[in-house]
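Course assignment 3, question 2. Fill in each field.
Student: A.L.
Task: Predict the tertiary structure for the chain below.
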Amino acid sequence: MKARRPWAWPLVPLYAAGLAVKDGLRRVGVLRTSRLEWPVVSVGSLSAGGAGKTPVVIALAELLRGHGWNVDVLSRGYGRRGIGVEQVSSDGESAAQRFGDEPVLLSQRLRVPVWVGADRFAAGVAAEAAAGEGEADSSAALRNDKQGALGNDKQRRVHLLDDGFQHRRLARALDVVLVTEQDLEDALLPAGNRRERLAALRRGDVVVVREEERERLEARIRGRMREGTAIWTVRRNIEVPDAADVFDRKLGLVAFSAIARPEDFVDTLRNAGGRVIDSIAFPDHHPYAAEDMHQLTKSLHMLAGNAFITTEKDAVKLTPELRAQLEATAPVLVARLQAVFLGPDDVVRELEARVS
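Answer field:
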């Protein structure tokens, strides 16, 4: 096992003991689960970040919507300044600060209701209540619709629980867990970034692996999964919507991010053909400030770069003022990471079998 923080090795047994105590309390019923009215599909991972959960949540939401499901997302909103349970509004300069960067990104990309709160059950109750009010308004309109022009748009409903593998207080119909090669080599917290023992894979109903890693991982994880657990494969694509030819023009790129695995972002850019001349990594979920922009512009000037490039999750945290500070020097490009399921029909069948 590899330790990101070797000094923390003595604390790992304490962390592992805490996991064991919680598991024991769940087995005897002291820690209970709560069930929402609508089915819940949880998307999570073994690690504290960097497995690629957000693109998978987006891919699942798009698949479900394409097959007639009405989807919302329940998220913790890590690092948010807001309190209680709130529905995300992605408008406004401080949206990422209030709701968290990932919920704002999900709201912008999916255009579905996204609810945040440390208590995901309470968030789900609020989401269902809000949808119920909307359905009541729709029913009243239908009763007054003499010509039948409005039709009947009532749809099947499902919650997507973002980063939910460890949030076991909320019952789920399907537990989807992402596994990367790095997870198998990583140590438990706090020495590493893995939040659970590898044996926790037995809780998963579906394991998601990356296309380029499946051949190496499948034999290693099969023995840790329950018999009959499905494995879904995702292909990760990167695109830059505002500069589709960025990988052909060989621009000198200064990449920056505040994510759990910044090296993955840089590797993906380079594998796509991007010429990354510098990579600046900030702590995960780092709130950007003017001095950070100064550091980035200094790097671009020193290396004669042509453009900045960052992730979507980072871009939502750039206020207009911060972005203007960078754009006074060079364009700011935003890379979009997409997860595409191989064999999407099988994925939909598995989903519908569990949530219908």
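Instructor remarks: The two ends are 40 Å apart (CA to CA). Confidence is low (pLDDT under 50) at residues 147-153.
Grade: pending
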